Amino acid sequence: MPEETPVQAKFALQRIYTKDVSFESPASPVIFTKAWKPKIQVDLNTRSKAVADNTFEVVLTVTITAKLEDDETAFLVEIHQAGLFVAEGIEGEQLRQLLGIACPNMLFPYLREAVDALVVKGGFPALALQPVNFEALYRQAEEAQAARQAETAAATTH
After folding, report:
1. For 71, phi and psi rounded to 5 degrees?
2. Is the pLDDT confidence value at 1 over 60?
3. What is the CATH topology of the domain spanning 10-157?
4. pLDDT attached to residue 158
5. Share of the chain above pLDDT 90, in %
6. In Å, what is the CA distance from 147 to each residue of 18, 37, 63, 138, 140?
């Protein structure tokens, strides 16, 4: 009986692309006459889905709102930076970590550059997003999900 050859794990980036881009500056041009001391709020999310056998789309989404002291919105940027990845011979938790940590790490520099370019083209000073620890975010999301499941289990048994 011939021995089965173990499947070699394979991970590859197929394509990086921009899925959606939005830039709004609702208070322009008046906003340019005001002192530039914005409060910047950054909301970052990731999601992934299978699109074919062993092929996954990962989307890194950022929404950035810059408001001045009078709570007036200077600009709002939203970008969905996506990538198509092939993962063969990788399953379960290892696959979830790949899609939730490694893939967003690959997409982040492209997202960061797109944010900066849009903000500058909108007439505002450059905005460089700080590096993100996707492993820590992944672990936090796992812990939050485990806590929700424990609460649900406790609520249904009482």
Report:
1. 70, 20
2. no
3. Bacterial Protein-export protein SecB (3.10.420)
4. 61
5. 81
6. 34, 38, 26, 14, 11
Distances (CA, A) of 4 to 1, 7, 8, 36, 54: 9, 9, 12, 65, 20
Q: Which residue has the higher pLDDT, 7 or 21?
A: 21
> For residue 63, what are its two tokens?
């929404």
Domain ranges of the chain: 10-157
DSSP secondary structure string for all residues of 81-93:
EEEEEEEES--HH
Is 90 exceeded by the pLDDT of residue 95?
yes
Angle, helices 134-157/103-121, rounded to nearest 10 degrees: 110
10 DSSP β-pair partners? 88
Tokens (6 digits) for 30 = 């008046």
